[in-house]
Design goal:
The strands form four sheets. Strands 1-2-8-5-3 form a five-stranded mixed β-sheet, sandwiched between helices. It has a three-stranded antiparallel β-sheet with strand order 4-12-9. The chain has a two-stranded antiparallel ribbon with strand order 6-7. By secondary structure, it is α+β, with helices and mostly antiparallel strands. 52% of the residues lie in helices and 9% in strands.
Length: 414
């Protein structure tokens, strides 16, 4: 399919989604600006249709916590990958990341995850605590000197970028470029909307592959105390340079953009209820609870997709091979069958850890321990340093359906 035909098809799909949203289809409504600003009423409309229902887009959708948990662990379903784009005539939009764990299924997924998992063990992640604490201290010193600052660009973004680039061993001189390309690649979470955007993302992927390949080759010659060096340790089944670069790309996508929005969404929810912010200031140990409740109440990754490998019966509905199911992670996190008073942010919620903010099954987020650590340190230090922190203007919401967060969030320390 030529680029022009792909572009026309994309425009047709976007126009179709707009029309379906106008006629009341809730899944289509999530792709529109209103649904992106506040998707939670739409998730409730989906829930009102039953544990699973079929959208007029042709996709199935669910916001049931029980069903979502089961599907994420069900090997009768698989993730969407580049082959689906090619077979669907949209190969022009393929960013060339089929060697990522996100796009893989067992047994290759199992092999790579088993080899990389030790690099995210408790000791290695906990070893980043001092690094994160020093970085957040420097960032907050700079913020305090201004009085009013943008939480997103001055704290929520540079903290995880600094951690993940240091963890991978990316030189400081390349970290800004690293972050820029990472932001471009994160568009993949929402799907590519134009051929031009696809080419920009593919260019960013190629640039980052080149950057990470240089780091891998340098570490093969001279190991250092970083994750890439750890992945190069000889074993019975060593990782290739290509595999390590692919893992680095995935860690970039999942390791800073989502954590950035975890921090922004959490601070937004806390400041919306001054009693919650005061409670965190009085007891910074509540920061770990703030992380879990943010992941439940307003998670960065709102939706995920699964494709039926075979005919599957779910709660009385027959899905056929190839059917697509949208799993509403954020909607499931507010399922009243699991969470009492689900639309209230509550630092003291005992069961917040039952959230699906890191997905589930064999695609459970590999970097979850690191994201938790970064979020905990950010919440604790912000509350400790700035007890009077408050919004200093309207936040600008990211125009996205899958990745929910803020582009900017002006705040004042007094």
């Amino acid at each position: 399919m030529t680029a022009t035909r792909v572009m026309l098809r994309l425009r047709g799909e976007q126009a179709g989604a707009w029309l379906l949203a106008r006629t009341g289809d809730p899944l289509a409504g999530l792709t529109q600006r209103g649904g992106q600003r506040d998707p939670y009423p739409i998730y409730e409309r989906i829930r009102a249709r039953g544990t699973i229902s079929r959208s007029r887009t042709g996709m199935w959708v669910s916001t049931s916590h029980e069903l979502a948990t089961g599907v994420l662990r069900d090997r009768r379903f698989r993730v969407r990958n580049g082959a689906d784009r090619v077979s669907g005539g949209l190969g022009e939009l393929d960013p060339g990341m089929d060697d990522s764990l996100v796009d893989m299924e067992p047994p290759e997924h199992t092999r790579l995850r088993r080899l990389v998992a030790p690099a995210f063990g408790r000791n290695r992640v906990e070893g980043q605590r001092v690094v994160a604490e020093k970085l957040i201290e420097r960032l907050l010193d700079q913020a305090a000197s201004k009085g009013t600052f943008d939480l997103m660009s001055e704290v929520a973004l540079p903290l995880p970028v600094g951690i993940i680039s240091g963890l991978l061993g990316v030189p400081d001189t390349d970290s800004a470029r690293f972050a820029h390309y990472g932001r471009m690649i994160s568009r993949l979470l929402d799907g590519i909307r134009t051929v031009r955007q696809a080419r920009e993302v593919r260019g960013a992927v190629d640039e980052l592959r080149s950057l990470l390949t240089q780091v891998v080759l340098a570490r093969r010659a001279e190991p250092a105390d970083d994750l890439i060096s750890a992945l190069l340790v000889e074993s019975d089944d060593p990782l290739s340079t290509k595999e390590i670069v692919a893992l680095g790309l995935q860690l970039l996508i999942a390791g800073f953009e989502t954590t950035t929005h975890l921090i922004g969404n959490g601070v937004g929810a806390l400041l919306a209820d001054p009693d919650q912010w005061s409670a965190l200031h009085a007891d910074p140990a509540l920061a770990s609870r703030a992380v879990e409740e943010t992941l439940r109440y307003d998670p960065p990754v709102q939706l995920t997709q699964r494709i039926a490998r075979e005919n599957v019966e779910l709660n009385g509905h027959e899905l056929t091979t190839g059917d697509q199911l949208i799993v509403g992670l954020a909607g499931a996190n507010r399922d009243p069958a699991v969470f009492a008073d689900p639309h209230r942010f509550d630092l003291h919620r005992a069961d917040a850890g039952e959230h699906l903010g890191f997905s589930g099954g064999h695609h459970y987020c590999l970097g979850a321990p690191l994201a938790r650590l970064e979020g905990e340190i950010a919440f604790a230090e912000l509350a400790r340093r700035f007890p009077r922190l408050r919004p200093a203007g309207p936040a600008v919401q990211r125009p996205s359906t899958v990745l929910r967060g803020k582009l900017s969030f002006p705040v004042s320390v007094s």
